[in-house]
Design brief:
Length: 311
């Protein structure tokens, strides 16, 4: 069942169109990602979904309701954590949660929520004394305090160190496991790949692709590549006869095999049958980042950052 429907959404700021006919639907219980370069219109789109902006054209429905007309009802059903949400420096974690809880009729139990978000030991810590990751987790707690069915999370791990980012991912997964549908805006390929069940890639206000992370990669780069040094000579036909193999190239003692499907297992099985060992075997799979570049013609902004993280 679709819990969010965005149909040919248009939004202009002055003369400038920033969302130009974006359409997508989010299914109940999934983590749905909006991915795209800076200025692609991601935040504007989720602000329209959250009822914070009025679309110029198109239709947005959240749980069958209109985010603007039915704003009061949706406030109880949708939790929103937007970019750069800030709280007063002196407010303590428990006070902030109590304050937000007071806006809701049946709020979550504060200490349970704080424990779930790894903030139980920071109940009395002031906002200013929290680390970046703790601030982000508090902002997620505030989005969840009304026990929403849908959570909208915008760039929630930007500026976090790799460990804090991973901790936040675990929190998001736990929320999803509780049955909350999540609409997530992200710049990070690793985040999209790890968390999202499906992704819409937004470019210049349009959805240019919509699929699972793996589906996007395969659609853009269906090929795979294996490189290895065989322990004994053999005829290339051993590999070229396999339906999965597209090409075989030799450079010195090294073999370079491209193909599709379950290439690795097809190649290693036939080699093993002939008692050949594939030494220094490497599999190159295209990444979501490659798919992103192919779709938008741009490098993802945080690619270098992610590279450091994986190092
Ligand atoms: N209130 C506003 N008034 C005028 N222009 C705006 C306003 N908000 C956003 N914009 C512009 O609209 C474009 C789309 O912005 P938006 O924040 O939706 O994109 P985004 O994909 O979320 O970008 P980012 O990844 O940089 O946050 C940007 O060029 C931005 O400068």
């Amino acid at each position: 069942m679709s819990v969010i429907e965005v149909d040919r959404l248009h939004k202009r700021y002055g003369a400038r169109t920033v969302v130009a006919g974006a359409s997508f639907a989010v299914e109940e219980g999934e983590i749905f990602g909006l991915l795209g370069p800076n200025g692609a219109g991601k935040t504007t789109t989720v602000e329209c979904v959250a009822g914070l902006r009025k679309p110029d054209a198109g239709r947005v429905a959240v749980l069958g309701l209109d985010p603007r007309r039915d704003a009061a009802r949706l406030r109880r059903l949708v939790g929103v954590q937007l970019q750069e949400s800030r709280l007063p420096d002196r407010i303590r974690v428990a006070e902030a949660v109590d304050l937000y809880a007071s806006f809701h009729r049946r709020p979550a139990v504060r200490d349970e929520l704080l424990a779930e978000l790894g903030l139980a030991d920071h109940r009395d810590t002031s906002y200013r004394a929290l680390s970046g990751g703790q601030k982000q987790r508090l902002s997620i707690a505030l989005a969840l305090v009304g026990r929403p069915r849908i959570a909208i999370l915008d760039e929630l791990t930007t500026g976090l160190d790799p460990q804090a980012r991973r901790d936040t991912w675990e929190v998001v997964e736990r929320i999803r496991d509780r049955g909350v549908t999540i609409l997530l805006v992200t710049h990070f390929m690793a985040e999209a790949e790890r968390l999202c069940d499906r992704l819409a890639v937004l470019d210049a206000g349009r959805v240019v692709a919509l699929d699972t992370p793996a589906g996007l990669v395969t659609r853009i780069h269906p090929g795979q590549r294996i490189r290895f040094r065989p322990s004994a000579p053999f005829d290339d036909r051993l590999l070229t006869d396999l339906p999965e193999v597209v090409s075989v190239r030799r450079t010195g003692r090294q073999l370079d095999v491209t193909g599709t499907g379950d290439l690795l297992s097809a190649v290693t099985t036939v080699l093993a049958r002939h008692q050949i060992i594939a030494a220094d075997l490497r599999v190159d799979r295209p990444s979501l980042d490659d798919a992103f570049v192919a779709l938008t013609g741009r490098r993802s902004q945080h690619r270098a950052d992610e590279g450091n993280e994986q190092a």
